[in-house]
Amino acid sequence: MRKLTLLAIVGLIAQLVDGSLGMAYGVTTTSLLLLIGTNPAAASATVHLAEIGTTLASGTAHWRFGNVDWGVVFRIGIPGAVGAFLGATVLSSLDTATAKPLMALILVSLGVYILVRFTLRGLRTDRLGQPLRSRFLAPLGLFAGFVDATGGGGWGPVGTPALLASGRIEPRKTIGSIDTSEFLVSVAASIGFLIALGSQGINFGWVVALLIGGLIAAPIAAWLVRHLPPRVLGSAVGGLIILTNVRTLLGSSWIDAGDTTKAVTYVVIAAAWIAAIAWSVGEHRKDTALTPTAATDDEHLLEADPV
């Protein structure tokens, strides 16, 4: 019961982050399941089964708050479903000794990308309103769906920054559209895992616990997306993903690091993580402070030179 409660809390926190940032539900919950010794394919299958419910609830909430571009949802979501099915098939065919460090490596890479992307670059909004082409969305969806199934998460970490970096769709609609299209990805990945694995290794009690936490958080996150600074949240989540999965890598047969190496590595990662969050908070405050200043300057100009 204690483990189920913990999983529900993790599901709630992960969905709060995912619904407000457009990423990290899968990588956060999969990282925890790997940490407690779950088979990689079963961990990804468990998360994707839970995500069928959480993404449906999240998509509905985002739609009600006006955060969804349906053209983007289908043009990226359908190729994403194809990629997810293929990724589930590939992961299910790997043995655990190979799959666990491989998944951890993918998750660390995604964590580094999230941390660097949001800490150093923030969000781009100078191309808002320009059309997103299918020749961009379809390959992106196919790749993100494949990574999502093989890594236990990755749809958001790949898709959300790519759409934000394009600068062609406002951040809240990027997040809402990615979260909504993830329903198609979750269904396809779950079908792929169930065909390849059956129900072997999947704990449906864990699925329900993650689902309950996610369902509670989904409408809250859809509202929070208008208020929380994504830059700071991205830095916080990226560091957490890195730290969690580096632990798995260092203890794997690939590396098998000693205690001293592990301790030094954890300290270095923690220090970089804290620095990244501090930098993001500072940059967010600068951006916030500049907005009223610019407005005040414009008012002075209008007063000095009325039209």
TrEMBL record:
The organism's place on the tree of life at top rank: Bacteria
Keywords for this protein: Cell membrane, Membrane, Transmembrane, Transmembrane helix
This protein's GO CC annotations: plasma membrane
Main localization category: membrane
Transmembrane feature ranges: 72-94, 101-120, 140-164, 176-198, 204-225, 232-251, 263-282
Homology family: Belongs to the 4-toluene sulfonate uptake permease (TSUP) (TC 2.A.102) family.
Protein name in UniProt: Probable membrane transporter protein
Source organism phylogeny: Bacteria, Bacillati, Actinomycetota, Actinomycetes, Micrococcales
